[in-house]
Amino acid sequence: MTTAIITLASAARLDHLRRQEEWIRIVAPDCIRVVVQLDPEPDHAFGGDALHVPPGADGLRLAAGRNRGAAEAIARGADLLVFLDVDCLPHPDMIGAYERSAGQDRTLLCGPVTYLPAGVIPASPAEADRSLAPHAARPAPTAGAVQAATDAEWDLFWSLSFACTAATWDAIGGFDERYEGYGGEDTDFAHRARAAGATLHWVGGAHALHQYHATSKPPWQHLDDILRNGRLFASTWGRWPMLGWIEAFAEAGAVENVDGDWRRVPPAR
């Protein structure tokens, strides 16, 4: 099996990308490596092999970037596509766990993700186990176990770390490139996968460690992206995604539901 690791990156995450590259050289030196830069202009700091997908009118084109990275990986002979967020470091067992679970086509594979606290970064992959604390919102089977997702768990699909065969990717048709900016494109991808007859499995031992960066809860800087992409999702699937964030915005008085459509509250006159 020929495996590719595909990562989307920007200049703001260059340090995280470099640390990820260091770990990949140790734990997966034989994998095809595809990096897609999402900044407006290509940056030579990413190296001459990095692909470039500039932002669209509404922000970073994450969906288009993943599609471009997958096409490059498949063109270079990849049988298995592993998508790893730029903030994520691969556990020494991650690639092997995905490869051992990839025998069935039309299957999405998701490993556990640990969010590292501020100031905590294992010195090397050999020390990764000391920091493992998988996010409680998603199933985390024991190493070696593969657990089929229930119908209710499809919305738990994250693009932070997942894998599928090239055949499965082709059957799904990739990500919907109408999504730009923050949010919604990965949940849409999961629904596209299920509509294409795919299954979703949680892969024990396929750990990724998410490097810390500051965030806001709810993500106010992405409010308009969430409304725009949420509306696109609703027009396709008949319901709104990201309701946790939307309801937090509503509680703060920033958005309201008008006839089933979430929108900004007009400024007071």
From TrEMBL:
Pathway field: Cell wall biogenesis; cell wall polysaccharide biosynthesis
Annotated ranges, domain Galactosyltransferase C-terminal: 153-212
Keywords carried by this UniProt record: Glycosyltransferase, Transferase
Listed Pfam families: Glyco_transf_7C (PF02709)
An example Gene Ontology molecular-function term: glycosyltransferase activity
Domain of life: Bacteria
Annotated InterPro entries: Galactosyl_T_C, Nucleotide-diphossugar_trans
Family assignment from sequence similarity: Belongs to the glycosyltransferase 2 family.
Protein name: Glycosyltransferase family 2 protein
